[in-house]
Amino acid sequence: xxxxLTINVLELTRRAGTLKDIAVSLPxxxxxxxxxxIVATRDIDVELHIESVQGGxxxxxxxxxxxxxxxxxxxxxxxxxxxxxxxxxxxxxxxxPDAYVLEGEQLDLLPMVRETMLLGLPDxxxxxxxxxGLCPQCGADMQSDPCQCQAQRTDERWSVLDQLxxxxxx
Length: 170
Ligand SMILES: [Zn+2]
Ligand SMILES: [Zn+2]
What we know:
Blueprint: E1 6-8, H1 9-13, E2 19-26, E3 44-53, E4 56-70, E5 77-91, E6 100-101, E7 106-108, H2 110-120, H3 149-169
Parallel strand pairs: 5-6
Antiparallel strand pairs: 1-7, 2-3, 3-4, 4-5
The structure holds zinc ion (2 copies).
């Protein structure tokens, strides 16, 4: 198969309710993501369920890739498999602002899959939800190498409060 994400629209839209499933793994290079968060040596898994409806197609499913990103807070490398839901419609005469235009006899779903995957990548990945990050003062990785800066800052805050309390108390 040279273009596994290209479907025959005429065949599918002849009758509303016609179904087609696609399940393929494709090389990352096919998508030309231009995004180094996506691991280039692992295939992109695409699972699509296509249903023809009046005036168009509904495409649902999932697309998955392997990613290598840096934690936004501590800069640790994170390797994760990211799965993104696909839920799109194609319409001959779009009346839905989110619909893709359906034209011609053949439809290449690749651009939509590409866009969905890119939009699904986290902009601010974290190595874990409560990653404490790097110390803003000394740069220590607070997850593995807790420093004393935080404790000092807390002490300073308390001493300010103590002063205030002292002033108010008089
Ligand atoms: Zn982190
Ligand atoms: Zn510190």
